[in-house]
């Protein structure tokens, strides 16, 4: 068939509108009907990972206005402390990197005062960009240079070896060895290459009108090649760091020029979100976002220090900034799980901004479905937020996912489902949850497919912007409460079997229907629709005083009987001058519920005060399953306006399983179909095992297995994605929180599957009841008894094991300070409530390289629900201040491998009230370190057996139904545990099956005893007068000598002491230690003192004693100790002697020291050579850093640069944290230059500047 005939046989039109869906919500039709209501006069706050101002579609609006009017980094991760000021001299300043910065002549700075700071590229580049740059830089720049130098080094050695084969002289052997050392260094560096960060000098000044800033992206001080910009909101300027990275950045300048905020993005997520909501493509309008006429305020709330995780600091600052800018619509496509809903400092500030500032806050519901109760926080848990679920349409399946078949509109399998744990519906509306649109330029992708409620939220937000734009043009005021109520009332709930009402909320957002309702049905401001109706529910006699926002019956003690619930309704009117409206508020309300299992009053009179009434829920006649209904209140005088308020009612009736087993055979699953099963967990069950078998002979199946168990006002949930091969079986295990409670087991077919699938599956409850859910063994106890009992109808095999994997130590802060934070960024609008920061300092020592987790237990796992505003910690090298890692409320996510050494830990906690912060000034930090090797505890049949190490508990037993057993965990051996106090952490497991052990385990702690072992007491020996006098004289001598090194000019006192103690080596060592850094003391004098001290020690005797393997002499122990002392003296003296000779010889070579007699020079060289040989006979340069450094220096003096570099690099690699290695790195860089390896010198220089930052610690 010809190409021409082929072209005629298919439709060549691309389903372009499926790339960024608009038709399903009516946005496309609305814009065609009302093109002038395209979002104009609406500004959307995008609270996300940051927005790239250079991405396609984000430059301008249809009428030519800037698309992005402000860009802010609210996290603090972009902040630079530029409080250090300098004045230019001859048009040049020195940056904190140490580089000379040439001030361009076209800069205007009347004061000549410049604020300076530094910023690392590691702070500005996301992980994916760092990985790309590392690969590209190494391939394009590093590798060609390095290979050239390696080839040169190899050729030099080959040329050397081509010489006639004669016996080499000592000098020639050293030269050849050095050539090999150079090759070794180059090969080793290639293997250990790590892309170095760039350090950018930052300069801030006031040009007489505005503050301006420049970042030295040239990294060589050429500021004229770098961008000079004001704060973004003033001039809308941004620049690109480099052509290779394509990372765009902008500035904000705070605190009178003392803080520079460098804004980049922590990921491409935020750019994608912004384009969905409001992107504008002038020549490709079909690619536009939902509201192309809207403008954007981009606020980065994803902290780069935490891999783009949101923080409380960022969220509070973002809300403050939105209030300051007068933004009335915000999108938030972020969220986490929660411990309890609709509580915490962040939720309070969001609700306050909605109430006081009229902010419409739109947020993603979460991607943790399909089980019920999986909405995230704050989207699904905060009352004031418009929460958005995600669905997929046939057009999206065609354009975005390229499916072979197009399925009906359905919610994505992963879209979170309501209700919230306190009964609230959890989801307000739904919108399309996928799009292909622009991403950040640094990805080099242009556009990308992303899906999630992160995409449905900006789609809905754009729809709201269209409505707000139209209402503004009509002069129609609409409060957030009225707008949300209208969105929910006008949403469409599809009738498709795959359209899940728990995922949809009130349904699919409809733009034109909502606008018509607000413009025509409610053509003027309606005070009743402006009211924020607080509806809360409590269950009398339930034992809980916590009010819910709905009724959620799910536990067996509620699901099998009638329950009474007290509903309390209280109106809130917000705004100035509403006193008469409050007085006149009177509503004749009709209460309606369509389900017969709910009994309520038919009417209630509402006024400006709280009213309460009782309703009854009777699920006793309901079949096993889940039910959702609502109690709605209508105004009897105007039913057309829709419900004034709604009370959601969710009922789960679980299935009892007396046999502990439930199975289904040959069950058909359509694409996206979800089957929920609710069970009462049998008493005594500790985990549940789910097996799924495919009955398909040909195709693989994609399934999602989800288990959820509610606990108080939170949930425990686990999900696993399963890919079943033909006729294959998969199984999974889930630990249970409580027995005699309800668990949901959901099995779902993946939404993008094709065709019907037939499965068989079973749910088997397993396990035994333990005496506790966690266990603590104290060192003083002989053993810890652990009781187990089986209730399972089938006998359980029990194989107990206790393994300890971590050591945990506690740190108290060494200092604290409460600071007043930024008066603009950290002052809550509109009441000017200042936020304060408590900063705590902890000193941490790590005695070996290991994985470390830092935890502040009272603050852990609390973000949105925390009563505090936020917490953030940063870890630094104690010596250099370099930032190593950071963490926040979720410690397990920030494990870090730390080298041996000293560290400084800084914690900041923020709140408006100083007295609350004051109470936290002694907060304990918990440091969890991975053990070098796991410790397995011995288990015994009784306590006595644990004491005498007999009668161990069997490795496995069979426990029939109704029987119990006890085993005893004994403490570990003393030699296996740390000498320090604290506790060891691990887990107790009861199965041999690794998959069960991974899923079902219980925390186990061993408390290490405080203090050291008591030494055996020995009777005090009586001294003779002569012995006592000798001891006193020696103590006086040692005291006088110890003070010698502390004197500014110890020579006079040294000469005086020499009269009495000239034969005592420590005298000379103490003097040498006192004068070694004194520039006024000549190297010759140090050489003479060293010679004098060395003559006092019999080196040969020391070497002979060191070489003795089995000394049988009676005083062998004393001789050994004396020999070790003298050995250390000799090592220190040879190091100082060699160093002083090198000082003299280097001065001669540099013409600093003139010596007329050449014989004197040769004598010094000979002495130096012999000193080095003596030192090497006593000390290994690979083990002792001081020895290594002096031998490396000697090698460098002899121009054996390869040998010197090899030694110094080994010392550098083995250094400990907390040791300042700057001088060492300078020597390495110098040697690289001497080898003509400029690429290596630049490599180590980049790392040196990064590892030794000047100025203060990195700001919070």
From TrEMBL:
It catalyses: Release of an N-terminal tripeptide from a polypeptide. GO terms for molecular function: aminopeptidase activity; serine-type endopeptidase activity; tripeptidyl-peptidase activity. Its EC number is 3.4.14.10. One of its GO terms (biological process) is proteolysis. Residues 794-980 form the Tripeptidyl peptidase II second Ig-like domain. GO terms for cellular component: cytosol. The keyword Hydrolase applies. Residues 39-503 form the Peptidase S8/S53 domain. Signal peptide: none annotated. Belongs to the peptidase S8 family. This is Tripeptidyl-peptidase 2. It comes from Dimorphilus gyrociliatus.
């Amino acid at each position: 068939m010809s190409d021409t005939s082929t072209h005629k046989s298919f439709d060549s039109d691309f389903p372009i509108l499926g790339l960024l869906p608009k038709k399903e919500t009516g946005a496309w039709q609305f814009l065609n009907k009302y093109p002038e209501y395209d979002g104009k006069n609406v500004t959307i706050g995008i609270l996300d990972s940051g927005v790239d101002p250079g991405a396609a579609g984000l430059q301008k609006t249809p009428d030519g206005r800037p698309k992005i009017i402000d860009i802010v980094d609210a996290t603090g991760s972009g902040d630079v402390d530029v409080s250090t000021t300098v004045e230019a001299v001859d048009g040049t300043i020195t940056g904190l990197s140490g580089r000379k910065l040439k001030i361009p002549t076209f800069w205007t700075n009347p004061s000549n005062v410049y604020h300076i700071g530094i910023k690392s590229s590691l702070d500005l580049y996301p992980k994916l960009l760092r990985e790309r740059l590392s690969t590209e830089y190494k391939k394009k720049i590093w590798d060609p240079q390095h290979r050239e130098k390696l080839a040169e080094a190899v050729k030099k050695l080959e040329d050397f070896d081509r010489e006639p084969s004669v016996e080499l002289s000592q000098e020639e052997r050293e030269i050849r060895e050095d050539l090999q050392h150079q090759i070794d260094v180059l090969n080793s560096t290639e293997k250990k290459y790590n892309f170095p960060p760039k350090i950018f000098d930052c300069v801030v000044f006031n040009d007489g009108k505005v503050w301006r800033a420049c970042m030295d992206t040239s990294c060589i001080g050429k500021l004229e090649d770098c961008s000079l910009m004001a704060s973004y909101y003033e001039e809308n300027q941004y620049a690109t760091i480099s052509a290779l990275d394509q990372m765009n950045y902008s500035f904000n300048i705070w605190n009178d020029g003392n803080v520079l905020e460098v804004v980049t993005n922590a990921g491409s997520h935020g750019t994608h979100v912004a384009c969905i909501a409001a992107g504008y493509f002038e020549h490709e309008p079909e690619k536009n976002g939902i509201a192309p006429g809207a403008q954007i305020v981009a606020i980065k709330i994803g902290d780069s220090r935490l891999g783009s995780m949101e923080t409380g600091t960022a969220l509070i600052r973002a809300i403050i900034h939105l209030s300051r800018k007068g933004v009335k619509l915000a999108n938030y496509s972020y969220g986490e799980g929660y411990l309890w809903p609709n509580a915490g400092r962040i939720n309070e500030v969001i609700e306050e901004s909605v109430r006081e500032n009229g902010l419409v806050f739109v947020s993603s519901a979460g991607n943790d479905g399909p089980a019920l109760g999986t909405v995230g926080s704050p989207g699904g848990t905060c009352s004031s937020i418009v929460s958005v679920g995600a669905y997929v349409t046939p057009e999206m399946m065609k354009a975005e996912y390229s499916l072979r078949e197009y399925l009906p509109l359905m919610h994505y399998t992963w879209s979170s489902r309501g209700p919230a744990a306190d009964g609230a519906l959890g989801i307000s509306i739904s919108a399309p949850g996928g799009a292909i649109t622009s991403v950040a330029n640094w990805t080099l992708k242009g556009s990308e497919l992303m899906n999630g409620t992160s995409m449905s939220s900006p789609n809905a937000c754009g729809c709201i912007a269209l409505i707000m734009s139209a209402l503004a043009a009509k002069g129609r005021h609409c409060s957030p409460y009225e707008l949300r109520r209208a969105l929910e009332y006008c949403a469409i709930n599809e009738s498709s079997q795959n359209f899940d009402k728990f995922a949809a909320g009130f349904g699919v957002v409809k733009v034109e229907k909502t606008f018509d309702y607000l413009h025509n049905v409610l053509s003027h401001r309606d005070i009743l629709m402006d009211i924020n109706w607080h509806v809360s529910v409590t269950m009398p006699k339930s034992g809980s005083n916590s009010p819910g926002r709905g009724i959620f019956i799910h536990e067996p003690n509620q699901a099998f009987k009638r329950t009474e619930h007290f509903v309390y309704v209280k109106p809130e009117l917000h705004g100035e001058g509403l006193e008469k409206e409050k007085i006149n508020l009177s509503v004749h309300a009709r209460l309606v519920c369509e389900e017969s299992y709910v009994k309520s009053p038919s009417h209630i009179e509402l006024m400006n005060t709280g009213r309460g009434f009782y309703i009854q829920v009777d699920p006793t006649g309901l079949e096993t399953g889940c039910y959702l209904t609502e109690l709605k209140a209508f105004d009897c005088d105007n039913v057309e306006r829709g419900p004034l308020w709604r009370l959601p009612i969710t009922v789960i009736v679980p299935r009892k399983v007396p046999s502990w087993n439930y199975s289904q055979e040959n069950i058909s699953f359509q694409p996206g179909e979800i089957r929920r099963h609710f069970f009462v967990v049998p008493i005594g069950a500790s985990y549940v095992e789910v097996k799924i078998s495919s009955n398909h002979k040909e195709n693989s199946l994609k399934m999602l297995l989800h288990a959820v168990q509610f606990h108080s006002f939170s949930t425990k949930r686990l999900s696993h994605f399963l890919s079943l091969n033909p006729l294959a079986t998969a199984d999974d295990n889930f630990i249970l929180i409580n027995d005699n409670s309800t668990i949901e087991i959901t099995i779902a077919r993946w939404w993008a599957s094709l065709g019907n699938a037939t499965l068989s599956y079973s749910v088997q409850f397993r396990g035994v009841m333990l005496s506790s859910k966690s266990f603590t063994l104290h060192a003083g106890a002989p053993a810890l008894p652990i009781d187990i009992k089986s209730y399972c109808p089938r006998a359980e095999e029990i194989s107990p094991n206790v393994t300890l994997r971590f050591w945990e130590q506690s740190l108290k802060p060494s200092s604290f300070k409460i600071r007043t934070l930024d008066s603009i960024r950290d002052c809550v609008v509109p009441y000017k409530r200042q936020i304060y920061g408590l900063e705590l300092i902890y000193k941490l020592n790590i005695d070996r390289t290991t994985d470390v987790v830092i935890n502040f237990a009272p603050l852990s796992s609390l973000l949105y629900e925390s009563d505090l505003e936020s917490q953030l910690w940063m870890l630094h090298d104690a010596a250099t201040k370099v930032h190593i890692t950071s963490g926040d409320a979720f410690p397990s996510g920030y494990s870090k491998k730390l080298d041996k050494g000293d560290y400084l830990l800084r914690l900041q906690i923020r709140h408006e009230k100083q007295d609350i912060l004051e109470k936290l000034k002694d907060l304990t930090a918990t440091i969890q370190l991975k053990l070098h090797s796991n410790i397995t505890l011995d288990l015994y049949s009784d306590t006595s057996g644990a004491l005498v190490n007999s009668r161990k508990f069997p490795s496995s037993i069979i426990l029939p139904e109704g029987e119990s057993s006890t085993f005893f965990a004994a403490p570990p051996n003393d030699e296996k545990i740390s000498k320090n106090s604290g506790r060891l952490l691990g887990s107790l497991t009861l199965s041999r099956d690794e998959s069960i052990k991974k899923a079902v385990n219980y925390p186990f702690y061993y408390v290490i005893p405080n203090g050291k072992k008591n030494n055996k007491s020995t009777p005090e020996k009586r001294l003779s007068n002569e012995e006592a006098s000798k001891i006193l004289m020696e103590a006086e001598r040692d005291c006088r000598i110890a003070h010698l090194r502390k004197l500014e000019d110890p020579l006079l006192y040294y000469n005086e002491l020499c009269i009495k103690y000239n034969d005592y080596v420590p005298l000379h060592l103490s003097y040498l230690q006192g004068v070694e850094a004194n520039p006024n003391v000549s190297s010759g004098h140090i050489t003479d003192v060293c010679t004098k001290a060395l003559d006092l020690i019999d080196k040969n005797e020391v070497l002979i004693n060191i070489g003795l393997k089995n000394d049988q002499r009676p005083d062998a122990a004393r001789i050994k100790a004396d020999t070790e002392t003298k050995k250390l003296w000799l090592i220190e003296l040879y190091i100082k002697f060699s160093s002083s000779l090198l000082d003299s010889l280097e001065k001669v070579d540099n013409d600093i020291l003139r010596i007329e007699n050449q014989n004197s020079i040769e004598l010094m060289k000979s002495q130096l050579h012999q000193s080095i040989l003596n030192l090497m006979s006593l000390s290994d340069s690979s083990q002792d850093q001081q020895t290594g450094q002096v031998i490396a220096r000697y090698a460098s003096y002899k121009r054996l640069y390869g040998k010197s570099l090899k030694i110094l690099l080994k010392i550098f690699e083995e250094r400990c944290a907390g040791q300042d290695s700057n001088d060492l790195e300078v020597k390495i860089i110098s040697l690289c230059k001497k080898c003509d390896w400029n690429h290596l010198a630049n490599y180590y220089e980049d790392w040196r500047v990064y590892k030794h930052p000047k100025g203060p610690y990195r700001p919070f």
